[in-house]
Amino acid sequence: MPEELPQLGRETLHEWSTLSYPSLVKELCSLFIGPELIPRDDLNDLIDRAFSRFRHREVVHLSRLRNGLNVLELWHGVTYAFKDLSLCCTAQFLQYFLEKRKRHITVVVGTSGDTGSAAIESVQGAKNVDIIVLLPKGHCTKIQELQMTTVLRENVHVFGVEGNSDELDEPIKTVFADVAFVKKHNLMSLNSINWSRVLVQIAHHFFAYFRCAPSLDMHPLSPVEVVVPTGAAGNLAAGCIAQKMGLPIHLVVAVNSNDIIHRTIQWGDFSLSKAVKPTLASAMDIQVPYNMERIFWLLSGSDSQVIRALMEQFESTKSVSLPKELHSKPSPLLSGSRLCSQVPGGCAGCQADPG
Ligand SMILES: *Cc1c(COP(=O)(O)O)cnc(C)c1O
């Protein structure tokens, strides 16, 4: 994540407000990926290619329900997971650099469901990439298992393993901790901590805002409330970044019974629960929400030293009581709520804030 986030003024927001979703992604990515890395025409092509297999012509669609309630449909990708959006772009960026540098890599991912299928879809058939997916047997839905095991491309390798998705993280962590091994085999991960995935997801929040805000001519701009179902806090971190860039959204976090983010935001209780509780929304059955580190960093005013100490303490004791300024009670940035379970599908509801 860059040290300084770009700030968008009213004029830019105005310009962006009528853009299509893919055009928004292009504008946004070009703020973070300079032409010396990817020239703008190439960047546009990569993003068009990323969305070429989506079923909806708008790629992302905002559905209007009653009483000012809206649903942002992020599920029109091949695997129906909202991860298709950010992973397809990330995979295109990745292939661009691999091609340029004549290199090959092997992606290794563990999955609790949606990540595996979406990661496979994003790189299936790619020349310079092989993908190995560890699939926790009995912990994914039948559809997800089939999505992962029926892609008959030579670069896709799926293994069924015992244990849940957090247990599966352990051997993967061990592999990535062995720097020499990783180097020798050109391994990489594509999990939700990947910055490029977070980057693309920032566009979801801009798109939602522009479609929901009553008008862009008000002073100050009227806020929109965005409800984000969350697991690893990737999409949530994207929302916080959008907000820091000047988008007037109010974020509400929705979790299932794996509620560490809810406890953190509500009471500053950033502590691991005893075990993952399996729910209907397996993509949200996550114990350690890695992207919270980014959110703490934003809330701390980019104080890397404080956040490093905090995360080190969390690593060793699995429990941190946050200082006041790092959770939401006094902060307008976030509020949380715990839902008993959540319908799978990766939607974010958004609503024009009446107050
Ligand atoms: C991955 C996923 C989530 C969690 O997303 P994060 O950005 O990691 O919080 C929530 N819902 C669905 C359907 C998902 O696939």
Automatic annotation (TrEMBL):
Residues 76-301 form the Tryptophan synthase beta chain-like PALP domain. The modification N6-(pyridoxal phosphate)lysine is found at K83. Keywords: Lyase, Pyridoxal phosphate. GO terms for molecular function: lyase activity; pyridoxal phosphate binding. One of its GO terms (biological process) is serine family amino acid catabolic process. It comes from the Eukaryota. InterPro entries: Thr_synth_N (IPR029144), Thr_synth_N_sf (IPR037158), Thr_synthase-like (IPR004450), Threonine_Synthase (IPR051166), TrpB-like_PALP (IPR001926), TrpB-like_PALP_sf (IPR036052). Its cofactor is pyridoxal 5'-phosphate. Residues 1-51 form the Threonine synthase N-terminal domain. The keyword Lyase applies. Belongs to the threonine synthase family. This is Threonine synthase-like 2. The lineage of its organism: Eukaryota, Metazoa, Chordata, Craniata, Vertebrata.
